[in-house]
Specification:
Layout (H helix, E strand, L loop, with lengths): L2 H12 L20 E6 L16 H5 L6 E3 L5 E3 L2 E6 L5 E6 L13 H13 L11 E8 L2 E6 L6 H5 L17 H4 L7 E3 L9 E6 L12 E6 L3 H10 L4 E4 L2 H8 L5 E14 L13 H10 L2 H9 L3 E3 L23 H10 L7 E6 L6 H12 L4 E6 L2 H10 L5 E6 L5 H8 L13 H12 L2 H17 L3 E13 L3 E3 L13 E3 L2
Parallel strand pairs: 1-10, 14-15
Antiparallel strand pairs: 2-3, 4-5, 5-7, 6-7, 8-9, 9-10, 11-17, 12-16, 12-17, 13-17, 18-19
Helix pairs in contact: 1-12, 8-10, 14-15
């Protein structure tokens, strides 16, 4: 496994579980349209867009525009690219670029800048560098036209260009080692104010008065890091911060009782057991689909959702989310809790006496209640669940490098792009680290990749059904997150992201 793949796995799987050093400032913040202060539990180690990841995307969106904008509902609209067209076999993506756009130092944004940024992202070693694995070359046609030549069709390319891979920085800074790490230079709606920024605590941005596009409603933007949700909730109540995302059920319940706080719900991440070892290399029993089906039947999802999440979410048996075309609501309840049937499947597979399943545990993801619930459910069908307690650092090494476990309980985002879901979870990579596949997967993946809209959607639904029926994964539930504000801000959730884009905040009416 390459360093890039391991880093990407860390970003996707463990970002929610790692508590980073530092604490937020305690200065009171002004409210209203002059100032927006957002609280967060994560922050980027670098502001170089080559290292951008989804959980920290707002830090980058403030100073960098993307080629394509992703609207709150997941649709794509023009940004630095005003038009885009694929050729007949979808191996070339031609972009028409906006004119008269400049970086912070006055350097013109043009097709050459797009080429430099694409190559910088590919080679930068960031968590999502793999997104451009299919990019073969970038042809500069003229200053406002560029063509991305692909090794093969990639239906997620526009999604990537609306995310980290599409962030455009000033190429003049690439030659200077780490110059963008703390001094971003983009074409975005804000500029970082280094004199007021304390890396690891708060990042202060002020409006870019020369911005080419429509100005956002806030003159000043601050993103403040907190190391726990209790502090964030208190900050919302006191007006120290204006907006935040709360993930834990306890904090959601607590803050909803405050009449001054405005809330908006969003279903996004699913929590579940990702099975890596479907070939049975570490745990031979998992090679048999009947055993994987038994694991799904053993889980009492309704009780788990009630006791662990206080019913803040929805049980599910699928990894595709509601915004994806491959999603099928019937698959959410495909596996009812049925220990007797699970035992029968184990017996038929030759495991009437059960077996031992060893899994890694990071406490920030698998709390005591969840750990006990899974152990109890599996014990009821004769499977002994052994937890191996790890911290974030040791998990990276043992899970993704040493490949020491047959699976792992994770919180995973659910993209609106079917091909992103397939690439992340089904293609060989961090979450299919043993590269397992089967005839059905091999048949349907090319249809999703190259088919027309209807054909690709039908194939995605068929693949989703196959993954569920064959027990590739053991999802528990989708989690309801709560966007909260101090009453001064209206927050619109963002499709494909747990945190809203910076464009999704507006003064409350």
């Amino acid at each position: 496994m390459s360093r890039t793949t391991r880093t990407g796995a860390l970003a996707a799987a463990l970002a929610i579980s790692l508590t980073l050093a530092g604490c937020a400032g305690t200065d009171a913040k002004s409210s209203g349209s002059s100032q927006l202060d957002i609280a967060t539990l994560t922050f980027p180690q670098s502001l170089d867009p080559a290292h951008a990841v989804g959980s920290a995307l707002p830090f980058f969106q403030a100073t960098y525009d993307t080629l394509v904008k992703r609207e709150p509902n997941g649709e794509f609209s023009p940004m630095l690219a005003t038009k885009w067209t694929y050729n007949a076999d979808a191996t070339e993506l031609a972009l028409t670029l906006r004119k008269d756009v400049e970086f912070a130092d006055g350097t013109a944004f043009d097709a050459a800048a797009v080429k430099s940024n694409m190559e910088h992202f590919q080679k930068g070693g960031g968590a999502d560098a793999k997104w451009l694995n299919d990019l073969k070359a970038v042809e500069v046609v003229d200053a406002t036209h560029v063509t991305l030549e692909l090794k093969q069709p990639n239906p997620a390319m526009l999604f990537y260009l609306s995310d980290a891979a599409g962030l455009m920085a000033n190429p003049a800074k690439f030659a200077k080692a780490d110059s963008l790490k703390t001094t971003p230079d983009g074409t975005g709606p804000y500029r970082l104010v280094k004199a007021k920024t304390t890396i690891g605590t708060k990042w202060v941005y002020e409006r870019n008065k020369d911005y080419w596009g429509e100005q956002l409603p806030y003159e000043n933007l601050t993103i403040s890091f907190f190391d726990n949700e209790t502090a964030i909730a208190n900050g919302i109540r006191t007006g120290q911060v204006n907006a935040a995302l709360l993930q834990t059920a306890d904090q959601q319940v607590s803050i909803e009782s405050d009449p001054r706080v405005k809330t908006t719900k969003q279903e996004f991440d699913f929590q579940g057991l990702l099975l890596f070892d479907r070939a049975g290399q570490l745990t031979p029993a998992l090679k048999d689909p009947r055993v994987r089906q038994a694991l799904n039947l053993a889980i009492d999802r309704d009780t788990m959702l009630s006791t662990i999440r206080q019913n803040r979410g929805k049980v599910t048996g699928q990894v595709f989310g509601p915004d994806a075309q491959g999603y099928d609501p019937k698959l959410d309840t495909y596996y009812a809790h049925d220990p007797a049937k699970a035992k029968g499947l184990l017996k038929a597979a030759g495991y009437a006496k059960g077996f031992t399943l060893k899994l890694p545990r990071i406490a920030a993801i698998v709390n005591d209640a969840l750990a006990a619930s899974l152990a109890t459910d599996f014990k009821a069908i004769g499977i002994k669940l052994v937890w191996d307690d790890l911290d974030g650092g040791s998990a990276i090494q043992k899970v993704f490098t040493d490949r020491a476990y047959s699976g792992m309980v994770m919180n995973m985002g659910q993209s609106s792009s079917d091909w992103v879901v397939v690439n992340e979870l089904v293609s060989p990579g961090a979450f299919n680290m043993f590269g397992t596949t089967d005839a059905t997967v091999q048949k349907l993946m090319p249809q999703i990749q190259t088919g027309t809209g209807a054909e690709a959607q039908q194939a995605a639904k068929a693949l989703n059904a196959h993954l569920v029926e064959d027990g590739w994964f053991v999802p528990f539930y989708r989690m309801t997150y709560l966007h909260v504000s101090d009453g001064t801000v209206k927050i619109t959730p963002q499709s494909g992201m747990a945190v809203p884009s910076i464009y999704n905040y507006a003064p409350a009416s």
